[in-house]
């Protein structure tokens, strides 16, 4: 197959040379004075009370200048306030009301902790603790202490990992570090912590290249990390009010040990190898006082990619090619993650674009810049980033799919597709926080994305009966040009009315996106209509040559107002009103090529459409929050009224006008079972409206054998979400335990209704469906469920000076669908388990042994004989050894096995990558490395995908064995703090980031 000739932009110069040209202008930019808050109490602490006292020597009663005072909040140990005694031994600390433990330390003296907690009342301007007399410590002889350094500590609802407890090679990244931490997993661009997807990674409390969870992990060296915090980040409004509004995102915060002086670090590399393979890149970080500048660049053709969730747009027209996602209408076939990373089919999500390692062979060029600083005398904090991606992809894929028709018959779908695509994207993010005064603040977070994509695809496909009799076949050439942009912004205003806890806040959200697509479809379809011994006796051929133009415009504007009122000593009442309006428009014009005019002038009304929808919601809610010494309880009841209207002009006129009323309860409970254990429970409800494409009743024939359309009669769905998480850490034994239970149930779930034609059929829209073809559209179905459990346990293995992490989980997904007007329930059970043994020996020896296996059991109510069990495991061993001072050898060996797939898709193979490096220059900053990828030549890419209507196996092309010689130069100009210095000492506590 030869594709249409296109001029492709190929980057031949390495991006890091270009980036180096702009570094001088960045290095000699404005230098801010030190803007750290020396008290470490944060910029946004409010309703503060002064805690005062004096520290003296217990014998001679002389003041102890420089004694360190810390006050730790008893119900939220992440809130720590610090001060130092002056020349008279006096100190003063500004804190928020509550109960605190006061601790005093001074060199040569025994640490002193007040027996009674310090009670800080909001009604008082000052709380005095009197005079604290310290006792000199006794001088001890030399003592050798050997113990495990605790890997993690539980501080309230934050799990903090100590980076110093993990010993790695000098060139290790933060990703190498977090892979060793119990409860955190990095796999195929997905980062999970405590069993949940990590939505963002912060660096010292600031965003780093937007919401991408992998960029910070890959581009920060592990040696600059002091600790890694895992917590559920609350919304900006909840951080003010302290009232949990349910808007939480799993967040990792990387706390660095860089001091306030200038630090520059990063690396540049360039490599060339066999088969014309190459790679080049640059990572540089310039930290000066409060200013942070990071630059990353890369260019390669070895499948090293740097996409984030935002770098590939979910185009609504022609986006899901390759048969695997085609013809599934607007319904989503699954509510959770697919069993083995494959698409769950149905509704187009960003994940369906295989964010991260895309299949096939990829050439990637990327450049990103991140900037953050503090301005206006610590009143304004700004973070911004720009990211550019240019990617070429070539994919050759074989698909073998078995449909669930009924107990009497079955249908097989086979596809061989080949595609090329070029994608380009620009992504910009910014977050600006401005403290107007002590009681007022603004937070503005705009985001913008511009993207385009050109692709060509050739597909050959067949539908056959289970016995092998052909039903139909097609051969298509599909060319598409997609472009789009998206802008979103959020503005939050927060006002503290008084010191009693009264507050008023408002939020305004705006989102606008526009997607345009142009595609050409050239297809030959053959339908076999014979019966009996000669099923292919009669052949009907159909030729298609079409052009389709479409545009989708979506705009959403929403706002809310929240008021909080104290109720008793520990209670708080919150009233909220939300209003949201979403307007969606879609127009699609399809024309056929006419010989008479020599152009695309034949209008196809059945394949064209115009629809505009409007979804308006009003919601009021009243909640109560109660905070005790060991618990925090929030209860809320909301009522929502929603109006859904839609106006379709063609292919036929149709109007939708429906309204919905729902009660939306919510509850959260965080209970502390001591200093090192806590329990969290969350329950919430939500609604989800159908998209414009799901409402649009127009046939999509981009795959003529797998047709799809929307459904204008869809209702919105209503979901219940439950989550329970238990954390426990034992600092003496250096163990960490996390258990999670997650459940989601959906009423009026937007699933799929599929017709698999046994004979020529006319579907409801009047479109002819030939025998063997399929037609799918979304439909509201009850009974969807997604339940899973997850357990992580980590502990040291002293005998071999390593850390062992164990994990296990059980999942169940219940997906309803309709197949030929019969209800099918697809049940997918899975059990998984794994372990990771990571070395903690020293910088010269580093190894990781890992294993993870998943056993899946698939059951279907229509075709129980198609019930299927299959197993997948991935074992790995990576190690590096430094020898003869400057030589290093690295090995990465993994074993993958699939069992229970189709006969041609079961696999059992090893993937072995190895390299040998020689380090030189001062401090070993340079390295020359010879690498071999896939030394055994067994690399393969097979997946299984289970949906509500079929089970499929598919294989895509992969890069084969190659050699590469790479030169790497590491820039390390660090000014590091002593390990163990807490983030509060640097003024970067979570209170500094707005948590209250």
Q: Which spans of ≥5 residues are poorly predicted at pLDDT below 50?
A: 1-46, 307-356, 532-536, 979-996
Q: How many DSSP-defined strands?
A: 51
Count every helix, treating DSSP H or I runs of 4 or more residues as helices: 5
Strand content: over 45%
Identify the notable features of this structure and list them briefly.
996 residues, mainly beta, 26-stranded antiparallel β-barrel, 6-stranded mixed sheet, 5 helices, 51 strands, disordered N terminus, disordered C terminus
Describe the structure.
The chain is mainly beta and 996 residues long. It contains five helices and 51 strands. It has a 26-stranded antiparallel β-barrel. The longest helix is centred in the N-terminal third of the chain and has 13 residues, at 15-27.
Summarize the structure.
This protein is mainly beta and 996 residues long. The protein is 3% helix and 59% strand.
Per-chain topology:
Blueprint: H1 15-27, E1 49-57, E2 68-73, E3 80-84, E4 90-95, E5 98-105, E6 112-113, E7 118-120, E8 126-134, E9 152-155, E10 158-162, H2 174-178, E11 184-187, E12 190-193, E13 196-197, E14 200-203, E15 206-207, H3 215-219, E16 225-233, H4 236-241, E17 249-256, E18 263-273, E19 278-288, E20 291-300, E21 361-375, E22 380-403, E23 411-437, E24 440-465, E25 470-496, E26 503-528, E27 539-567, E28 571-594, E29 599-603, E30 609-627, E31 631-650, E32 654-672, E33 677-688, H5 692-695, E34 706-708, E35 717-730, E36 735-747, E37 749-756, E38 761-762, E39 768-769, E40 774-781, E41 784-797, E42 802-819, E43 822-839, E44 845-860, E45 868-883, E46 887-899, E47 907-920, E48 926-933, E49 942-946, E50 950-956, E51 962-973
Parallel strand pairs: 1-8, 14-17, 34-40, 37-42
Antiparallel strand pairs: 1-4, 2-3, 2-5, 5-6, 5-7, 9-10, 10-16, 11-12, 12-13, 14-15, 16-17, 18-19, 18-51, 19-20, 20-21, 21-22, 22-23, 22-50, 23-24, 24-25, 25-26, 26-27, 27-28, 28-29, 28-30, 30-31, 31-32, 32-33, 33-35, 35-36, 36-41, 37-40, 38-39, 41-42, 42-43, 43-44, 44-45, 45-46, 46-47, 47-48, ...
């Amino acid at each position: 197959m030869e594709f249409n000739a296109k001029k492709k932009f190929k980057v031949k110069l390495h991006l890091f040379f270009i980036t180096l040209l702009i570094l001088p202008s960045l290095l000699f930019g404005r230098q801010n004075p030190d803007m750290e808050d020396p008290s470490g109490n944060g910029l946004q602490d409010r309703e503060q009370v002064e805690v005062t006292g004096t520290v003296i020597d217990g014998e001679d009663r002389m003041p102890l200048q420089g004694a360190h005072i810390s006050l730790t909040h008893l119900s939220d140990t992440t809130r720590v306030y610090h001060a130092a005694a002056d020349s008279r031994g006096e100190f003063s600390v500004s804190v928020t009301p509550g109960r605190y433990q006061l601790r005093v330390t001074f060199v040569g003296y025994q640490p002193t902790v007040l027996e009674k907690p310090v009670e800080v009342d909001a009604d008082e301007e000052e709380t005095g603790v009197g005079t604290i007399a310290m006792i000199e410590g006794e001088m001890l002889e030399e003592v050798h202490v050997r113990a495990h350094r605790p890997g993690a500590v539980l501080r309230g609802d934050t799990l903090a990992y100590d980076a110093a407890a993990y010993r790695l090679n000098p060139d290790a990244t933060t990703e190498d570090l977090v892979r060793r931490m119990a409860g955190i997993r990095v796999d195929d661009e997905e980062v999970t912590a405590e069993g949940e997807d990590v939505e963002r990674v912060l660096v010292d409390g600031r965003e780093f290249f937007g919401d991408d969870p992998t960029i910070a992990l890959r581009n920060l060296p592990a040696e600059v990390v002091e600790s890694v915090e895992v917590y559920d980040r609350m919304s900006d409004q909840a951080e003010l009010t302290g009232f949990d509004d349910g808007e939480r995102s799993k967040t990792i915060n990387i706390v660095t040990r860089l001091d306030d002086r200038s630090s520059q670090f990063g690396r540049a590399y360039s490599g060339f190898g066999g088969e014309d393979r190459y790679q080049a890149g640059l990572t540089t970080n310039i930290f000066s006082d409060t200013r942070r500048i990071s630059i990353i660049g890369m260019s390669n053709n070895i499948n090293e990619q740097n996409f984030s969730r935002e770098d590939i747009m979910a185009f609504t027209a022609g986006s899901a090619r390759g048969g695997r996602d085609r013809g599934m209408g607007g319904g989503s076939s699954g509510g959770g993650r697919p069993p083995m990373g494959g698409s769950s089919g149905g509704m187009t999500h960003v994940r369906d674009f295989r964010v991260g390692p895309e299949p096939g062979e990829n050439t990637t060029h990327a450049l990103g810049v991140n900037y953050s600083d503090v301005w206006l005398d610590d009143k304004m904090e700004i973070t911004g980033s720009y990211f550019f991606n240019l990617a070429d992809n070539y994919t050759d894929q074989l698909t073998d799919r078995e449909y669930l028709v009924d107990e009497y018959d079955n249908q097989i779908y086979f596809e061989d597709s080949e595609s090329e695509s070029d994608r380009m994207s620009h992504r910009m993010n910014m977050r600006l926080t401005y403290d107007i005064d002590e009681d007022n603040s603004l937070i503005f977070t705009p985001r913008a994305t511009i993207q385009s994509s050109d692709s060509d695809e050739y597909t050959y496909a067949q539908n056959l009966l289970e016995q092998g009799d052909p039903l139909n076949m097609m051969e298509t050439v599909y060319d598409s040009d997609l472009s789009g942009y998206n802008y979103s912004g959020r503005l939050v205003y927060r006002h503290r009315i008084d010191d009693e806890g009264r507050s008023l806040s408002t939020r305004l959200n705006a989102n606008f996106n526009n997607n345009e697509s142009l595609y050409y479809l050239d297809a030959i379809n053959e339908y076999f209509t014979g019966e009996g011994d000669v099923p292919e006796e009669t052949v009907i051929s159909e030729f298609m040559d079409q052009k389709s133009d479409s545009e989708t415009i979506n705009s959403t504007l929403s706002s809310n107002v929240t008021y909080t009122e104290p109720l008793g000593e520990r209670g708080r009442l919150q009233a909220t009103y939300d209003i949201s309006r979403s307007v969606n428009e879609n127009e699609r014009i399809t024309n056929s090529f006419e010989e008479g005019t020599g152009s695309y002038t034949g209008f196809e009304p059945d394949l064209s459409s115009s629809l505009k929808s409007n979804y308006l919601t009003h919601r009021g809610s009243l909640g109560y929050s109660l905070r005790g010494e060991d618990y925090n309880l929030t209860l809320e009841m909301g009522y929502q009224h929603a109006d859904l209207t839609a106006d379709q002009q063609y292919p036929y006129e149709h109007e939708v006008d429906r309204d919905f009323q729902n009660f939306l309860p919510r509850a959260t409970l965080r209970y502390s079972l001591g200093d090192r254990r806590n329990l969290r429970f969350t329950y919430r409800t939500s609604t989800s409206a159908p998209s414009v494409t799901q409402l649009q009743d127009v046939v999509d024939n981009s795959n003529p054998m797998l047709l799809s359309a929307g459904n204008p009669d869809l209702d919105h769905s209503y979901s219940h979400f439950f989550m329970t998480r238990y954390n426990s850490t034992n600092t003496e034994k250096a163990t960490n335990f996390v258990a999670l239970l997650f459940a989601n149930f959906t009423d009026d779930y937007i699933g799929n209704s599929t017709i698999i034609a046994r004979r020529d059929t006319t579907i409801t829209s009047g479109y002819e469906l030939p025998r063997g073809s399929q037609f799918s559209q979304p439909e509201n179905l009850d009974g969807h469920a997604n339940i899973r459990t997850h357990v992580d346990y980590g502990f040291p293995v002293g005998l071999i000076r390593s850390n062992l992490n164990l994990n296990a989980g059980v999942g169940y997904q219940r997906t309803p669908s309709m197949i030929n007007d019969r209800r099918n329930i697809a049940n997918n059970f899975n059990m998984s388990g794994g372990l990771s043994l990571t070395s903690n020996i020293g910088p010269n020896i580093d190894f990781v042994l890992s294993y993870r296996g998943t056993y899946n059991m698939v059951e279907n109510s229509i075709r129980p004989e198609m019930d299927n069990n299959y197993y997948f495991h991935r074992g790995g061993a990576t190690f590096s050894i430094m020898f003869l001072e400057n030589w290093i050898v690295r090995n990465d060996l993994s074993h993958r096995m699939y069992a229970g797939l189709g006969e041609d898709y079961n696999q059992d193979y090893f993937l072995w990558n190895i390299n040998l490096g020689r380090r030189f220059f001062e401090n070993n900053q340079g390295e020359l490395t010879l690498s071999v990828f896939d030394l055994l030549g067994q690399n393969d890419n097979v997946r299984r995908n289970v949906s509500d209507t079929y089970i499929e196996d598919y294989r895509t092309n992969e890069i084969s064995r190659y050699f590469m010689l790479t030169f790497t130069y590491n820039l390390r100009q660090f000014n590091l703090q002593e390990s163990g210095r807490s983030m509060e000492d640097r003024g970067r506590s979570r209170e500094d980031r707005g948590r209250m």
